[in-house]
Amino acid sequence: MFDNLSEKLGGILDRLTGRGALSEADVDAAMREIRRALLEADVALEVVRSFTERVREQAIGATVVKSVKPGQMVVKIVNDELIATLGSEGQSIDLNAVPPVPIMMVGLQGSGKTTTTAKLARRLTERDKRKVLMASLDVYRPAAMEQLAVLGRDLSIDTLPIVAGQQPPDIARRAMEAGKLGGYDVVLLDTAGRTTLDEEMMTEAAEIKAAANPHEVLLVADSLTGQDAVNLARAFDQRVGLTGIVLTRIDGDGRGGAALSMRAVTGKPIKLMGTGEKTDALEDFHPDRIASRILG
Ligand code: GDP
Fold first, then answer.
1. What is its subcellular localisation (predicted)?
2. Ligand 1 binding pocket, CB closer than 6 Å
């Protein structure tokens, strides 16, 4: 089988072993395969362009030594650049503020916001020993509010009591008030998503942000998102100012290109990854794992 990038680049470049430095022509042949691999991994086109340009610059003129095959050498350049672009590990949630620390979750409907809110609440409670209050601001789907309440009951983590008819910014203010009065360390605000990017969702997110002044604004995004990932991340970052990204459904069979796309356009760290439906399926971000998935 010659279907992974490493083998393809080997096929193109390994005949050059011992011939000095990689020329532009050698590298350009390899770049076509790299571009194809990234597109197949669902990396957005504009990100593929800038990424391959950086790899190209590093690869041209690289000395071909006898001990390392040229194909492997370029794969290493691609891998290192992927990891560098994806960012470093250990970018944890920043709780360094006066409690209750507000954390706002944004994203499209179905991206995993509510589940991630519960996962994060569980981690902060069990691992970090914080007292957490969760609040659903999804006034459009009463089932979403109920879903968070059920998760809270299962985890023995408090949720803000539901008051019918209240608008999201008012719920955010009430959550912060309850957070102060109840001596909570962290207040997690689970906002409503829409099925597509729309102006209403962005306006509402901006209003909630103004009301709660969140210390972290986390974009919860499905790692299976393809070309749309850049628009999604860019729109949320421009309108509400993200502090980090949580990638969900890493357990799926997606190739992880969305991670590279979102990180590249926003420059914001990917802080966590969701690896399953259960509330303990939340892990720190590991760029090397995503890089090897993208490489196939
Ligand atoms: P929301 O509309 O953004 O609040 O999305 P939900 O939290 O309701 O999640 C939508 C669906 O995705 C639910 O069935 C979740 O169980 C599922 N889900 C969320 N995160 C993950 C994950 O990391 N892996 C898997 N396999 N499923 C997830």
1. Cell inner membrane; Cytoplasm
2. 107, 109-115, 193, 248-249, 251, 274-277, 281
Q: Which strands form 132-136's sheet, in the order they lie side by side?
A: 158-159, 132-136, 186-190, 101-106, 216-222, 244-248, 270-274, 282-284
Q: Estimate the crossing angle of helix 70-86 against helix 24-40, to 10 degrees.
A: 50
Ligand 1 atom with least separation from CA of 118: 7
Residue whose C-alpha is closest to residue 105's, from 250, 247, 216, 25? 216
pTM for the model stands at 0.94
CA 284 distance to own-chain centroid: 11
**Are 221 and 227 in contact, with CB atoms under 8 Å apart?**
no
pLDDT digits (tens, 9 = 90+) for 169-213: 999 999 999 999 999 999 999 999 988 888 999 999 999 999 999
Residue found under tokens 């990180």: 263
Measured in whole angstroms, how far is the alpha carbon of residue 14 from the centre of its chain? Answer: 35
pLDDT of residue 231: 92
User: From the annotation, which residues make up the binding site?
Assistant: 107-114, 190-194, 248-251
DSSP class of residue 6? H
Query: How many Å apart are CA 159 and CA 254, to the nearest integer?
Result: 33
Q: From ligand 1's centre to the CA of 291, what distance in Å? A: 23
Q: What span, in angstroms and rounded, lies between the C-alpha atoms of 62 and 147? A: 55
Per DSSP bridges, beta strands 63-64 and 20-21 are antiparallel
Q: What is the pLDDT of residues 72-110, one digit of tens each?
A: 889 999 999 999 999 877 688 999 999 999 999 999 999
Side-chain-side CA neighbours of 197 within 13 Å: the count stands at: 14
Tokens read off for 264: 């590249």
Intervals of the chain under pLDDT 70: 1-3, 90
218 Cα: distance to centroid of ligand 1 (angstroms) = 15
Distance CA 270, CA 259 (A): 8
